[in-house]
Amino acid sequence: MLPKNLILRIMFIASSLGSCVAAGTEHQAQTPMPAAVSPAQSLLDTARHRAQSGDATGAVEALQALADSGFADVDLIRNDPALRKLPGDPAFDALLGVMAAKAYPCEHDPVFGEFDFWVGDWDVHLADGREAGTNSIRREQRGCLLIEEWQSATGGSGTSINYFDKADGEWVQIWNDASGSQIEIRGGLTDDGMLLKGTIHSVATGTSLPFRGLWTPLPDGRVRQYFEQADAGGSTWTPWFEGFYSRRSDGN
């Protein structure tokens, strides 16, 4: 039989080893595992390495695989310092074009440019030459949207958003102004210009009436805007507004 003091010594050593093992296990549990590199990151790193090594073909092959995987951040590729030697390479430029068309489809779909003849800063006059106001129409959201900001010569103002509804195949304008006029019209290009039809609603009176607008580019570079409003039955149309747009000079 072992001496009592030896038995106590063995028990102490065993207890100490157990504490060490437990502490080691706890430390491992608290130490984060290195994050796994995603396939997309791996392909991008490969492209960077090959580009910096002068292997443009290999870099584009890696970027093509990256694009095929669903990666769509064309701006990241275009602005990556490690890929700065690739612009001008035909294969790289072609790949960027394909990626850009997927990332920003409105910029690359001609139908979204059908209303571009109205884009710009304009002075607007009535048919008799009197000043009606100024209008600014600008492209927003990479060509997916036109924003109109109207300022009347008499102090009124209004804003519209204009876009091509790809699902329905129609142009849409939604207008609101300070007087509470709300216009929602839809349509598309005709031989006479952009023709949109719908309704005008008055917040003040609660009434809604048929409404239509026609924008026509003129040979001299101006644009004619002609609005009509109908009676409640839609049988009789009367002019609502006619304006002629002239592009503002830089000095205005």
Features of the shown structure:
single chain; 5 helices; elongated
If helices are DSSP runs of H or I spanning 4 or more residues, what is the number of helices?
A: 5
- Total number of beta strands: 10
| Strand portion | 35-45%
User: Going across the major beta sheet, what is the strand order?
Assistant: 1-2-3-4-5-6-7-8-9-10
Distance between the termini: 110 Å
**Shape call:** elongated
Please give the radius of gyration in angstroms: 33 Å
Enumerate the spans where pLDDT stays under 50 for 5 or more consecutive residues. 6-14, 19-25
Q: Overall mean pLDDT score?
A: 88
Helix and strand succession? Answer: HHHHHEEEEEEEEEE
Query: What level of helicity do the residues show?
Result: 25-40%
* Structural class label: alpha+beta
Profile the largest sheet: 10 strands, antiparallel, barrel
3D architecture notes:
There is one protein chain. This protein has helices at 4-30, 39-52, 56-68, 74-79, 90-103; strands at residues 120-125, 131-140, 145-152, 157-165, 170-177, 181-190, 193-202, 208-217, 223-230, 237-247. β5 (170-177) and β6 form a beta hairpin. It has 252 residues and is an alpha+beta fold. The longest helix is centred in the N-terminal third of the chain and has 27 residues, at 4-30. The chain has a ten-stranded antiparallel beta barrel with strand order 1-2-3-4-5-6-7-8-9-10. The model is unreliable at 6-14 and 19-25 (pLDDT under 50).
